[in-house]
Amino acid sequence: MMQRGCRAYALATASAADSTMVSLEAGDGPAADAPPSTAGHHPAAIELHLFVPAGDGTHGSFLQEDDGLTFAARDGARYRTTFAVARRGDRVTLSAEVDGDGYPEFAREAFVLVVHGAAPATVTVDGEARALRDGRVAIANAGTGFAAEFGM
Q1: How far apart are alpha carbons 29 and 81 in whole angstroms?
Q2: Which domain covers residue 48, as residue numbers?
Q3: What separation, in Å, do the N-terminal and C-terminal C-alpha atoms of the chain show?
Q4: Is 101 a domain residue?
Q5: What is the CATH number for 142?
Q6: How many CB atoms lie within 10 A of CB 51?
Q7: pTM score
Q8: In Å, how far from its chain's centre is CA 116?
Q9: From CA 79, how far away is CA 42, in angstroms rounded?
Q10: Residues 3, 51: contact at Cβ < 8 Å?
């Protein structure tokens, strides 16, 4: 989440080789360039850029993944991941809850969490401490919820 005044936003991008960016806004942040359609766009990994909020509070956003062609998502053929980033003093948590039944083209195998505004040595993901490399940590994920936490 990136602090802009009192508001925050997060960005999720596909792999570095893919320039498609999905904006997950929870405030007045600038919208990222979105593709005209997500048809045929089913990345194996999605980067979650977490910008540590400047002060205590909770900020939310979501990412919806579906076939990009039909309205089947209305009937549950999707994964909608709702994110909450909370800062309490020097602790930051990221929680993700998932709704939906999935869809045949779904290909994501991981989120890659990229932390900005802090330099933690480790992030605890679902109770397991994981080392960051260059401010990044991979979170194996194929459409399930998770919880991550780190200190500043």
Answers
A1: 20
A2: 2-28+42-67+76-151
A3: 15
A4: yes
A5: 2.60.40.1180
A6: 21
A7: 0.78
A8: 13
A9: 12
A10: yes
Whether residue 37 lies inside any domain: the answer is no
User: Are 38 and 79 a contacting pair, CB within 8 Å?
Assistant: no
Classify residue 34: in a domain, yes or no.
no
DSSP per-residue codes, 80-101 = EEEEEEEEETTEEEEEEEEES-
In a domain, 15, yes or no: yes
Segment 68-118, tens digit of pLDDT? 899 999 999 999 999 999 999 999 999 999 999 999 999 999 999 999 999
Q: Give the total number of structural domains in the chain.
A: 1
Q: SS in 3 state form for 18-80?
A: CCCEEEEEECCCCCCCCCCCCCCCCCCEEEEEEECCCCCEEEEEEEEECCCCCCHHHHCCCEE
